[in-house]
Amino acid sequence: MAVSKMSFISMIGPMKNINKLVNICGEMGVFQPDNVFSFYSNTENFKPIAEENPYAGPLQNLKNAVYSCGGALEKVDIKGFNVNQSKIERYVSYISENIENMVDEKRALYGKIENYKSEIEQLKHFYGLNKKLKDIMSCSYIKPKFGRIPLSSYEGYQDLLKKSEKKGIELVFFPFEKDNDYQWGLYFADTPNEQEIDRLFASIYFEEIKLEPHDATPFEACNNLRNLQKDIYKKIESIDKNIENFLNANKEQCYKFYTKLKELSTYFEIKSYAAQYNESFILVGWVPKDDLKKFTESIGSIKGIEYSTEEGSKVLNHTPPVKLKNPKIFKPFEFLVDTYGLPSYNELDPTVFVAITYNILFGIMFADLGQGLMVSLVGYLMWKLKKNRLGKIMISCGFFSAIFGTIFGSVFGFEHVLDPFYKNVFGLPHKPIEVMESSSINYIIYSAVGVGIFLMVVSMLFGIYAFIKKKQYGEALFSPNGLMGLIFYCSMVFMLLDMVMLHTGVVNGLYITALLVIPLVCMMFEEILIKLVNKDPNWLPEKWGDYIAQSFFELFEVMLSYVSNTMSFLRVGAFVHAGMMMVVFTMAEMAGGAGGVTYWVIVVVGNIIISGLEALLAGIQVMRLEFYEMFSKFFEGQGKVFTPITVSDNN
Fold first, then answer.
1. What is the pLDDT of residue 177?
2. What secondary structure does DSSP assign to 485-541, as a single string?
3. Which of 40, 233, 317, 443 is most solvent-facing, going by the fewest CB within 10 Å?
4. Residues 369, 418: Cα–Cα separation, whole Å
């Protein structure tokens, strides 16, 4: 339940050794660079190192080449694999040229296929023509024109014939296929009247289509083109095989060059954070304290490199990045904390608290042995198959659901299956808690409120600790989430219990004054009191009337938040799993009676639906309790994540 300590490191050395340094910084995987210019007050003689990354181009070319043919690139172990830039460029050029040539050949063949497809689509409209296209197009005195006329315009063809007769021009149009929009056909224009005939057909929106002079009829030409397509597909299959063989033959070496380029390109980018000062460079950044010794030993091996380190919290005007440090069993719940926001460097990490409370609250709200184990199984598959971080959380949540399901005696909605277990193991006649009995409802509700009160108190204690850790002693004493708020809340809870149940007689005028009125007054004037604790000379408000009015309404809002936050935990008791499953069993009995096929189908399907729906609802409701009722007491979540330079496929 902690944030890893960070160390700030500043490194200075000759420019000729900067590549060695950034390579070590990258290889170590524990260094996060930062902007040099923000750490030094006098940067007049500093200038950024604006060198072009010589590895970015070859890396991109290699990726483009391999990905263009459907290949894949993976990171591999390249220990001992040392190559210079010249060899890298030659290898990338060799891979790129070979693949590009084969891909270009494929692209050209696909282009031919598309052309043939387009030509077939045009020729299909003229299947009724039983003459070879070449013979028709080779006429000397007449020009054939293939095309189409919109159906709405084709109705005016007869009028067009009359116009042509008056002008002494003979029109000859042969209609072929008709579709929903066009009449496809062919007309002939004698050479002397070609322009006039074209103009007449243009008046009814004839669109000419250029066909190739095939030595075949349109039907035969289509078949010939389809055969040509088949031949081309065979050529493409051959090229694909050649590409596959080429990639397989070069796979191992290609992966090595890819990994090397990824490393060199990633490490080179570290230089963009550095600054040049005359013939030297300055590079600064952050390293986890646990890794600092190993890191400094590595960079210390470079000749001419000098470095200085400082504890992260002591670096003025800079907030160190955050790396969470939790036991492995609690680590999956860092995902939920990160959803709200990372803790600041000097803030309390709530991961362990979230892991414990989230599991328990989820287990209470979704208490079923069988369905809980199902949730764990689904979570395991989500993590194993998809590496979904939510899957690990579901595993533990399902396990706690199974635990509370055993306590409540629920197995896939059957409420008395475990009665023999209770009798044989614990000597009980039946399960210890019957959640659907009226006598248990008040017990469940009171227990839910009790859980809420306990978690509220713990959250306030965390809040006090967080204030002290940040040296905000005034807030720790007088804020609603500080000591005064804790005293008031606990005292109010005890007073209500004493009035309703305990009747101890402790609550009197002195109790109310000391434990309720004084804390309220302190919280009302918290701003003034905090400034006094911090020795702020400007502690007096400008206008007392405005200050008191504003403080009163803020205090009233705080009182409401205490009540609403506590009552929010009623959802833990109200969210009874047995009630939802009762609906399923009622439907099953109405549909087919107990024991029938329909009965079991409804029970099985109902279990699946309820499991998914209830797990989702319980997860959301518990997350709401965590974020709004508990985190608001002690957690801000304004930290920035520690992101060391590492080589990954996502870089």
1. 92
2. HHHHHHHHHHHHHIIIII--S--SHHHHIIIIIHHHHHHHTHHHHHHHHTT-TT-S-
3. 317
4. 10
